[in-house]
Amino acid sequence: MPLLLKWKIALLLCLLLLIEGLQAGEPILPLPRSHHQPAPKVALGRRLFHDPRLSGNGSLSCASCHVLERGGDDNRPLPVAASSPYPHNTLTVFNVRFNFRYHWYGDIAGLREQAQRALRQDMKAKWPQLVARLEKDRNYAKQFAALYPDGIQRQNVLDALVAFELSLITPDSPFDRYLRGETEAMTPLQRQGYDRFKSYGCAACHQGVNIGGNLYQKLGVFRDFIDDDPGRFAVTDREQDRFVFRVPSLRNVAVTAPYFHHGKVPTLEKAVAIMGEYQLGIQLPKDDIEAIVAFLHALTGNYRGRSLEDK
Ligand code: HEC
Ligand code: HEC
Predict the structure, then answer these.
(1) Which of 153, 177, 212, 284 could form a Cys-Cys staple with 185, CB 3.0–4.6 A?
(2) Atom 8 in ligand 1: which residue has the minimum CA distance?
(3) Ligand 2 within 6 A of CB of 252
(4) Which residues contact 272 (CB under 8 A, 6 or more apart)?
């Protein structure tokens, strides 16, 4: 069977599943309001996340690229210190706990493995040096000792970082309040945008609690997307994975520009128009793009009680 036909059939199946889902309720669930991570671990993880001593040359922390005062990314097309052969747009760390796999290729199974890779590749960390640096800090020694009998160790550094990442949720966006029954939390234009989002079939791919992050899909279902990034093919070597990516989450998407795996799409209007053309095979009317973009703005949630929009 030709590859394109296969993709079209897969998309059709998704749409049918979606219609079934719609009859049962909404295709998207609100984010939970609490993260249930122990406060001392989250506090230690937060400190580590912001600490440049974790990088080899002491210049870069996780927060250099994942800015929590904004969208949990760096608002650049590509990170300044990208070192991989296919440098990708920085993904947000907010709500990562709801993604089924990590990175644009979805080739990382767990957050611990992801943190190890970030430390090694993005930050050029060396474990003995990193542990020695942290041991010199009396506050760290105390914080680790209170949580871990074996003190400052690689697995404990990773454990605290992961606990912190599990705490990074952004509940109570206007959309989540709407889903919980506060109809007026979204403007009429945003509600219209959500209707369009569902009726055009965006939610076939962007769905679940993270409005994405739970499927692999091809970029360019109806039209070839010209780009030299081979997608998951780069990590699986299987022809059917060419131009396939993990569908990104759309939570807080209004504050994480620019867009796409290569960071070359500057605005939501452009991103939505491309989605219509390449993923759904339609030229979306201007009014519908406007309504959908308004809806996407309703997906901006709160971190530690403040809207990410205000920052
Ligand atoms: C130099 C910039 C940079 C630094 C420093 C950095 N990251 Fe990232 N991060 C990225 C980029 C770029 C991606 C996307 C990589 C890809 O998909 O190929 C990413 C992806 C992630 C993801 C996956 C999100 C998802 O939805 O799949 C997590 C989690 C993450 N980073 C956490 C961390 C942690 C924890 C640290 C510190 C130990 C860190 N990052 C340091 C740039 C950075
Ligand atoms: C067939 C699956 C599919 C459908 C249908 C789909 N998308 Fe996407 N969407 C994706 C994939 C895959 C990407 C990642 C593209 C890339 O590789 O950069 C994406 C990316 C996006 C982005 C950019 C996110 C970011 O952080 O860079 C936005 C915004 C978006 N989609 C919105 C929509 C809207 C609105 C619709 C409906 C008009 C839609 N999508 C329909 C699969 C889909």
Answers:
(1) 177
(2) 118
(3) no
(4) 284, 289, 292, 293, 296
Residue closest via CA to ligand 2's atom 12 equals 247
Q: How far apart are CA 177 and CA 184, in angstroms?
A: 9
Region 22-34: mean pLDDT is: 83
Q: What is the pLDDT of residues 63-89, one digit of tens each?
A: 999 999 999 999 999 998 655 566 899
pLDDT (tens digit, 9 = 90+) per residue, 227-282? 889 999 999 999 999 999 999 999 999 999 999 999 999 999 999 999 999 999 99
Over its C-alpha atoms, the chain yields an Rg (Å, rounded) of 20
- Ligand nearest to C-alpha 284: 2
Give me the pLDDT at residue 25, please. 80
The residues, any chain, with a CB within 8 Å of residue 306's CB and separated by 6 or more, are none
